[in-house]
Amino acid sequence: MLETNPNRKIIHIDMDAFYASVEQMDNPELRGKPVAVGGNENRGVVSAASYEARKFGVRSAISGVLAKKNCPELIFVQPRFDRYKEISKKIQAIFYDYTDLVEPLSLDEAYLDVTQNKKGNPSATLLAQEIRLRIFNEVGLTASAGISVNKFVAKIASDFNKPNGQKTVTALEVIPFLEVLPIRKFYGVGKVTTEKMYQLGIFTGLELKNKSEEFLEKHFGKSGKFYFNVVRGIHNSEVKSERVAKSVAAEQTFDSNLSSEIFMLEQLEAIAIILEKRLKKHKISGKTITLKIKYSDFSQQTRSKTLPYFISDKGLLLETVTELLYQERMKDSVRLLGIAMSNLNTEQKKAVAVQLKFDF
After folding, report:
1. CA within 13 Å, CB half, 322
2. Mind telling me which PANTHER family this protein's record contains (predicted)?
3. 214-273: per-residue pLDDT in tens?
4. Strands 10-15 and 109-113
5. Nearest to 43, CA basis, from 307, 253, 288, 349
Protein backbone atom coordinates (compact mmCIF):
# COMPACT_ATOMS: atom_id res chain seq x y z
CA MET A 1 0.00 0.00 0.00
CA LEU A 2 1.35 3.41 -1.00
CA GLU A 3 1.30 5.79 1.98
CA THR A 4 1.54 9.05 0.08
CA ASN A 5 -0.84 11.31 -1.82
CA PRO A 6 -1.62 9.33 -5.01
CA ASN A 7 -3.07 12.42 -6.69
CA ARG A 8 0.13 14.47 -6.68
CA LYS A 9 1.89 14.89 -10.02
CA ILE A 10 5.58 15.71 -9.74
CA ILE A 11 7.99 16.12 -12.66
CA HIS A 12 11.75 16.10 -12.23
CA ILE A 13 13.51 17.67 -15.21
CA ASP A 14 17.21 16.95 -15.59
CA MET A 15 19.20 18.46 -18.43
CA ASP A 16 21.43 16.00 -20.30
CA ALA A 17 25.15 16.61 -19.63
CA PHE A 18 24.22 20.28 -19.28
CA TYR A 19 27.59 22.09 -19.15
CA ALA A 20 29.12 19.89 -21.85
CA SER A 21 26.00 20.10 -24.02
CA VAL A 22 26.06 23.92 -23.87
CA GLU A 23 29.69 23.87 -25.01
CA GLN A 24 28.86 21.50 -27.89
CA MET A 25 25.86 23.64 -28.87
CA ASP A 26 27.94 26.84 -28.93
CA ASN A 27 30.91 25.25 -30.68
CA PRO A 28 29.91 22.93 -33.56
CA GLU A 29 33.47 21.56 -33.73
CA LEU A 30 32.87 19.85 -30.36
CA ARG A 31 29.70 18.05 -31.39
CA GLY A 32 29.97 14.28 -31.36
CA LYS A 33 33.34 14.43 -29.61
CA PRO A 34 34.34 13.55 -26.02
CA VAL A 35 34.32 16.78 -24.03
CA ALA A 36 35.20 17.52 -20.41
CA VAL A 37 34.30 20.83 -18.79
CA GLY A 38 36.84 21.87 -16.18
CA GLY A 39 40.29 20.58 -15.35
CA ASN A 40 43.02 19.73 -17.82
CA GLU A 41 45.30 16.82 -18.63
CA ASN A 42 47.80 17.86 -15.95
CA ARG A 43 45.60 18.76 -12.96
CA GLY A 44 42.21 20.00 -11.87
CA VAL A 45 38.87 18.23 -11.58
CA VAL A 46 36.25 17.55 -14.25
CA SER A 47 32.99 19.42 -13.63
CA ALA A 48 30.97 17.72 -16.37
CA ALA A 49 31.46 15.30 -19.26
CA SER A 50 29.67 14.78 -22.55
CA TYR A 51 28.03 11.43 -23.22
CA GLU A 52 30.76 10.68 -25.74
CA ALA A 53 33.31 11.06 -22.91
CA ARG A 54 31.25 9.10 -20.39
CA LYS A 55 31.60 5.98 -22.54
CA PHE A 56 35.28 6.02 -21.54
CA GLY A 57 34.60 6.41 -17.83
CA VAL A 58 35.02 10.19 -17.77
CA ARG A 59 32.63 11.75 -15.27
CA SER A 60 32.34 14.70 -12.93
CA ALA A 61 34.60 14.89 -9.87
CA ILE A 62 37.44 12.77 -11.31
CA SER A 63 40.85 14.32 -11.89
CA GLY A 64 41.76 15.69 -15.30
CA VAL A 65 44.81 13.39 -15.32
CA LEU A 66 42.64 10.28 -14.91
CA ALA A 67 40.09 11.57 -17.42
CA LYS A 68 42.79 11.99 -20.07
CA LYS A 69 44.17 8.57 -19.27
CA ASN A 70 40.72 6.99 -19.72
CA CYS A 71 40.07 8.93 -22.92
CA PRO A 72 43.20 10.09 -24.80
CA GLU A 73 41.05 11.95 -27.36
CA LEU A 74 39.32 13.97 -24.62
CA ILE A 75 38.90 17.70 -25.28
CA PHE A 76 39.06 19.94 -22.19
CA VAL A 77 37.14 23.24 -22.17
CA GLN A 78 37.03 25.77 -19.37
CA PRO A 79 33.64 26.36 -17.73
CA ARG A 80 31.62 29.47 -18.61
CA PHE A 81 29.19 29.80 -15.72
CA ASP A 82 27.69 33.06 -16.91
CA ARG A 83 26.63 31.28 -20.09
CA TYR A 84 25.23 28.31 -18.17
CA LYS A 85 23.22 30.66 -15.94
CA GLU A 86 21.89 32.48 -19.02
CA ILE A 87 20.67 29.20 -20.55
CA SER A 88 19.30 28.01 -17.20
CA LYS A 89 17.12 31.12 -16.91
CA LYS A 90 15.60 30.44 -20.34
CA ILE A 91 14.81 26.88 -19.32
CA GLN A 92 13.26 27.95 -16.01
CA ALA A 93 11.12 30.50 -17.84
CA ILE A 94 9.60 27.59 -19.74
CA PHE A 95 8.86 25.78 -16.47
CA TYR A 96 6.93 28.78 -15.15
CA ASP A 97 4.65 28.66 -18.18
CA TYR A 98 3.25 25.46 -16.69
CA THR A 99 3.33 25.99 -12.91
CA ASP A 100 4.52 28.42 -10.28
CA LEU A 101 5.58 25.47 -8.10
CA VAL A 102 9.12 25.14 -9.45
CA GLU A 103 11.96 24.09 -7.17
CA PRO A 104 15.38 24.45 -8.86
CA LEU A 105 17.99 22.11 -7.43
CA SER A 106 20.83 23.52 -9.55
CA LEU A 107 21.32 25.18 -12.92
CA ASP A 108 20.39 21.98 -14.73
CA GLU A 109 17.60 20.33 -12.77
CA ALA A 110 14.33 21.18 -11.05
CA TYR A 111 11.14 19.74 -9.59
CA LEU A 112 7.77 20.87 -10.92
CA ASP A 113 4.45 20.22 -9.17
CA VAL A 114 1.89 20.07 -12.00
CA THR A 115 -1.00 18.66 -9.96
CA GLN A 116 -2.74 21.95 -10.71
CA ASN A 117 -1.11 23.49 -13.77
CA LYS A 118 -1.58 26.53 -15.99
CA LYS A 119 -2.37 24.40 -19.05
CA GLY A 120 -5.25 22.54 -17.41
CA ASN A 121 -3.72 19.29 -18.65
CA PRO A 122 -4.38 16.35 -16.29
CA SER A 123 -1.53 14.29 -17.77
CA ALA A 124 1.86 14.96 -16.19
CA THR A 125 3.40 12.59 -18.73
CA LEU A 126 2.17 14.69 -21.66
CA LEU A 127 3.22 17.89 -19.91
CA ALA A 128 6.74 16.53 -19.44
CA GLN A 129 6.91 15.63 -23.13
CA GLU A 130 5.76 19.12 -24.08
CA ILE A 131 8.25 20.81 -21.73
CA ARG A 132 11.14 18.74 -23.08
CA LEU A 133 10.13 19.51 -26.67
CA ARG A 134 9.99 23.22 -25.92
CA ILE A 135 13.43 23.14 -24.30
CA PHE A 136 14.81 21.47 -27.43
CA ASN A 137 13.06 23.83 -29.87
CA GLU A 138 13.61 27.07 -27.96
CA VAL A 139 16.99 26.45 -26.31
CA GLY A 140 18.56 23.74 -28.43
CA LEU A 141 19.31 21.21 -25.68
CA THR A 142 17.82 17.88 -24.64
CA ALA A 143 16.38 17.07 -21.24
CA SER A 144 15.19 13.95 -19.47
CA ALA A 145 12.26 13.69 -17.08
CA GLY A 146 10.89 11.52 -14.31
CA ILE A 147 7.20 11.67 -13.44
CA SER A 148 5.60 10.28 -10.29
CA VAL A 149 3.59 11.02 -7.16
CA ASN A 150 6.54 12.25 -5.09
CA LYS A 151 9.91 13.92 -5.52
CA PHE A 152 11.95 10.90 -4.50
CA VAL A 153 10.58 8.56 -7.17
CA ALA A 154 10.47 11.29 -9.83
CA LYS A 155 14.18 12.01 -9.24
CA ILE A 156 15.10 8.33 -9.68
CA ALA A 157 12.84 7.93 -12.73
CA SER A 158 14.47 10.85 -14.59
CA ASP A 159 17.71 8.89 -14.78
CA PHE A 160 16.14 5.78 -16.34
CA ASN A 161 15.89 6.77 -20.01
CA LYS A 162 18.73 9.27 -20.28
CA PRO A 163 19.59 10.99 -22.47
CA ASN A 164 16.55 12.67 -24.03
CA GLY A 165 13.93 10.37 -22.52
CA GLN A 166 11.43 10.13 -19.71
CA LYS A 167 9.81 7.60 -17.42
CA THR A 168 6.50 7.71 -15.58
CA VAL A 169 5.91 5.75 -12.37
CA THR A 170 2.22 5.86 -11.41
CA ALA A 171 0.91 5.54 -7.87
CA LEU A 172 0.15 1.84 -8.41
CA GLU A 173 3.62 1.23 -9.85
CA VAL A 174 5.67 2.93 -7.11
CA ILE A 175 6.03 -0.04 -4.75
CA PRO A 176 6.82 -2.64 -7.46
CA PHE A 177 9.24 -0.14 -9.05
CA LEU A 178 11.13 0.41 -5.79
CA GLU A 179 11.18 -3.26 -4.81
CA VAL A 180 13.18 -4.33 -7.87
CA LEU A 181 15.37 -1.22 -7.93
CA PRO A 182 19.07 -1.83 -7.17
CA ILE A 183 19.90 -0.10 -3.91
CA ARG A 184 22.73 1.85 -5.59
CA LYS A 185 20.10 3.67 -7.67
CA PHE A 186 18.19 4.97 -4.64
CA TYR A 187 18.49 8.74 -4.46
CA GLY A 188 20.29 9.62 -1.23
CA VAL A 189 22.18 6.32 -0.99
CA GLY A 190 25.79 7.17 -1.77
CA LYS A 191 28.76 4.94 -2.51
CA VAL A 192 29.76 4.41 1.13
CA THR A 193 26.20 3.64 2.23
CA THR A 194 25.73 1.31 -0.72
CA GLU A 195 28.77 -0.72 0.35
CA LYS A 196 27.49 -0.86 3.91
CA MET A 197 24.09 -2.07 2.72
CA TYR A 198 25.77 -4.73 0.59
CA GLN A 199 27.55 -5.98 3.71
CA LEU A 200 24.17 -6.22 5.44
CA GLY A 201 22.72 -8.24 2.56
CA ILE A 202 20.70 -5.36 1.12
CA PHE A 203 21.00 -5.24 -2.66
CA THR A 204 17.47 -4.28 -3.81
CA GLY A 205 14.56 -2.21 -2.61
CA LEU A 206 12.72 -5.35 -1.52
CA GLU A 207 15.60 -6.43 0.69
CA LEU A 208 15.69 -2.93 2.19
CA LYS A 209 11.93 -3.09 2.75
CA ASN A 210 12.30 -6.37 4.64
CA LYS A 211 14.47 -4.69 7.29
CA SER A 212 12.77 -3.18 10.34
CA GLU A 213 12.93 0.50 11.18
CA GLU A 214 14.87 -0.36 14.34
CA PHE A 215 17.44 -2.33 12.32
CA LEU A 216 17.95 0.52 9.85
CA GLU A 217 18.25 3.17 12.56
CA LYS A 218 20.76 0.98 14.42
CA HIS A 219 23.00 0.75 11.35
CA PHE A 220 22.33 4.10 9.64
CA GLY A 221 21.29 6.44 12.44
CA LYS A 222 18.74 9.11 11.56
CA SER A 223 18.95 8.15 7.88
CA GLY A 224 17.49 4.77 8.79
CA LYS A 225 14.01 6.23 9.15
CA PHE A 226 14.34 7.93 5.77
CA TYR A 227 15.28 4.63 4.09
CA PHE A 228 12.47 2.84 5.89
CA ASN A 229 9.91 5.34 4.59
CA VAL A 230 11.03 5.96 1.01
CA VAL A 231 11.19 2.28 0.09
CA ARG A 232 7.50 2.19 1.04
CA GLY A 233 6.79 5.17 -1.20
CA ILE A 234 6.47 7.54 1.76
CA HIS A 235 7.99 10.88 0.81
CA ASN A 236 5.67 13.83 1.28
CA SER A 237 8.16 16.66 0.82
CA GLU A 238 6.47 19.46 -1.11
CA VAL A 239 7.88 21.23 -4.14
CA LYS A 240 9.07 24.53 -2.71
CA SER A 241 9.23 27.42 -5.12
CA GLU A 242 11.69 29.25 -2.87
CA ARG A 243 14.50 27.60 -0.96
CA VAL A 244 16.14 28.75 2.24
CA ALA A 245 19.89 28.75 1.94
CA LYS A 246 21.57 26.53 4.55
CA SER A 247 25.06 27.67 3.65
CA VAL A 248 26.92 29.97 1.31
CA ALA A 249 30.43 29.07 0.18
CA ALA A 250 33.29 30.13 -2.03
CA GLU A 251 36.35 28.09 -2.94
CA GLN A 252 39.29 27.98 -5.33
CA THR A 253 41.46 25.23 -6.82
CA PHE A 254 45.04 26.32 -7.48
CA ASP A 255 47.18 25.70 -10.55
CA SER A 256 50.14 25.01 -8.27
CA ASN A 257 49.91 23.48 -4.81
CA LEU A 258 50.45 25.86 -1.89
CA SER A 259 52.80 24.91 0.95
CA SER A 260 53.11 28.24 2.77
CA GLU A 261 50.41 29.53 5.12
CA ILE A 262 51.29 33.08 4.03
CA PHE A 263 50.36 32.29 0.42
CA MET A 264 47.23 30.51 1.67
CA LEU A 265 46.16 33.61 3.58
CA GLU A 266 46.49 35.71 0.43
CA GLN A 267 44.15 33.34 -1.39
CA LEU A 268 41.75 33.15 1.55
CA GLU A 269 41.48 36.93 1.59
CA ALA A 270 40.38 36.90 -2.06
CA ILE A 271 37.87 34.13 -1.30
CA ALA A 272 36.55 36.07 1.71
CA ILE A 273 35.93 39.13 -0.49
CA ILE A 274 33.84 37.03 -2.89
CA LEU A 275 31.92 35.45 -0.02
CA GLU A 276 31.22 38.85 1.55
CA LYS A 277 29.76 40.12 -1.74
CA ARG A 278 27.43 37.14 -1.98
CA LEU A 279 26.32 37.41 1.63
CA LYS A 280 25.61 41.13 1.40
CA LYS A 281 23.88 40.81 -1.97
CA HIS A 282 21.27 38.55 -0.35
CA LYS A 283 21.37 40.31 3.04
CA ILE A 284 22.56 37.16 4.77
CA SER A 285 24.90 36.71 7.71
CA GLY A 286 25.91 33.67 9.71
CA LYS A 287 27.54 32.41 12.87
CA THR A 288 29.46 29.32 11.76
CA ILE A 289 32.56 29.69 9.59
CA THR A 290 34.12 26.60 8.02
CA LEU A 291 37.53 26.39 6.40
CA LYS A 292 37.76 23.71 3.72
CA ILE A 293 41.17 22.30 2.83
CA LYS A 294 41.91 19.81 0.06
CA TYR A 295 45.43 18.45 0.06
CA SER A 296 47.59 17.43 -2.90
CA ASP A 297 46.67 13.78 -2.29
CA PHE A 298 42.98 14.78 -2.68
CA SER A 299 42.20 14.10 0.99
CA GLN A 300 39.95 16.74 2.52
CA GLN A 301 39.69 18.42 5.90
CA THR A 302 37.31 20.99 7.40
CA ARG A 303 37.77 23.20 10.45
CA SER A 304 34.86 25.16 11.90
CA LYS A 305 34.14 27.78 14.52
CA THR A 306 30.77 29.14 15.68
CA LEU A 307 30.64 32.74 16.87
CA PRO A 308 28.11 34.13 19.38
CA TYR A 309 26.92 36.69 16.81
CA PHE A 310 26.09 36.94 13.09
CA ILE A 311 28.73 38.26 10.71
CA SER A 312 29.09 38.92 6.98
CA ASP A 313 32.10 41.27 6.95
CA LYS A 314 35.20 40.01 5.13
CA GLY A 315 37.46 41.32 7.89
CA LEU A 316 35.72 39.27 10.57
CA LEU A 317 35.52 36.32 8.20
CA LEU A 318 39.25 36.42 7.53
CA GLU A 319 40.04 36.87 11.23
CA THR A 320 38.20 33.65 12.05
CA VAL A 321 39.57 31.78 9.03
CA THR A 322 43.13 32.79 9.98
CA GLU A 323 42.57 31.32 13.42
CA LEU A 324 41.29 28.10 11.83
CA LEU A 325 44.22 27.99 9.39
CA TYR A 326 46.77 28.05 12.21
CA GLN A 327 44.73 25.74 14.41
CA GLU A 328 47.01 22.86 13.44
CA ARG A 329 49.85 22.24 11.03
CA MET A 330 49.12 21.30 7.43
CA LYS A 331 49.80 17.64 6.73
CA ASP A 332 50.70 18.29 3.08
CA SER A 333 50.67 20.93 0.35
CA VAL A 334 47.24 22.32 -0.52
CA ARG A 335 45.43 22.25 -3.88
CA LEU A 336 42.10 23.85 -2.83
CA LEU A 337 40.84 26.24 -0.18
CA GLY A 338 37.29 27.26 0.58
CA ILE A 339 35.25 29.21 3.10
CA ALA A 340 31.65 28.38 3.99
CA MET A 341 29.19 30.33 6.10
CA SER A 342 26.35 28.42 7.78
CA ASN A 343 24.04 28.77 10.77
CA LEU A 344 22.47 31.63 8.81
CA ASN A 345 19.99 34.31 9.82
CA THR A 346 17.48 33.20 7.16
CA GLU A 347 15.08 31.34 9.46
CA GLN A 348 12.90 34.38 10.03
CA LYS A 349 13.45 35.85 6.59
CA LYS A 350 11.77 35.26 3.29
CA ALA A 351 13.49 32.37 1.55
CA VAL A 352 16.05 33.29 -1.04
CA ALA A 353 17.69 31.27 -3.77
CA VAL A 354 21.46 31.32 -3.29
CA GLN A 355 24.13 29.59 -5.32
CA LEU A 356 25.86 27.39 -2.78
CA LYS A 357 29.29 27.41 -4.39
CA PHE A 358 31.16 30.16 -6.18
CA ASP A 359 33.09 28.84 -9.17
CA PHE A 360 36.32 30.58 -10.07
Report:
1. 11
2. DNA POLYMERASE KAPPA, DNA REPAIR POLYMERASE UMUC / TRANSFERASE FAMILY MEMBER
3. 999 999 988 899 999 999 999 888 998 865 567 889 998 888 889 888 899 999 999 999
4. antiparallel
5. 253
pTM of the model: 0.69
Q: Which long-range contacts (CB under 8 A, 24 or more apart) does 306-311 make?
A: 306/343, 310/285, 310/286, 310/345, 311/285, 311/286, 311/287
Amino acid letter for position 231: V
Q: 240-273: buried (b, 16+ CB within 10 Å) or exposed (e) per residue?
A: ebeeebebbbbbbbbeeebeeeeebbebbeebbe
| pLDDT given for residue 42 in this prediction | 87
Asked whether 359 and 252 are in contact (CB, 8 A), the reply is: no
Q: Where are the alpha helices (DSSP H) in the chain?
A: 18-26, 51-54, 64-70, 81-95, 124-138, 151-157, 174-179, 191-199, 205-209, 213-220, 223-230, 261-281, 314-325
**Closest to 271 (Cα-Cα) out of 332, 305, 306, 321:** 321
* pLDDT grade for 4, boundaries at 50, 70 and 90: low
Tens-place pLDDT, residues 110-128: 999 999 999 999 999 999 9
How many CB atoms are closer than 10 A to CB 28?
Answer: 8
**Residue 313 labeled ligand binder:** no
- Check whether 3 has a pLDDT greater than 70: no
Could you tell me what percent of the chain has a pLDDT over 70? Answer: 94
29 is catalytic: no
Give the integer Cα–Cα distance in Å for 212 and 225: 10
> Considering the chain, what is the average pLDDT of its residues?
90
For 102-108, what is the mean pLDDT?
Answer: 91
- Please write the tens of the pLDDT for every residue from 275-323: 999 898 888 899 999 999 998 888 889 999 999 889 999 999 999 999 9
Domains along the chain with CATH numbers:
7-169 (3.30.70.270), 174-230 (1.10.150.20), 247-358 (3.30.1490.100)
Whether 108 has a binding-site annotation, put simply, is yes
Please name every residue paired with 311 in a beta bridge, in sequence order, or none if there are none.
286
Of residues 181, 173, 115, 158, the one with CA closest to residue 12: 158
The number of residues making up the chain comes to 360
Q: Which is the catalytic residue, given 23, 52, 103, 109?
A: 109
- Closest Cα partner for 145 from 134, 132, 126? 132
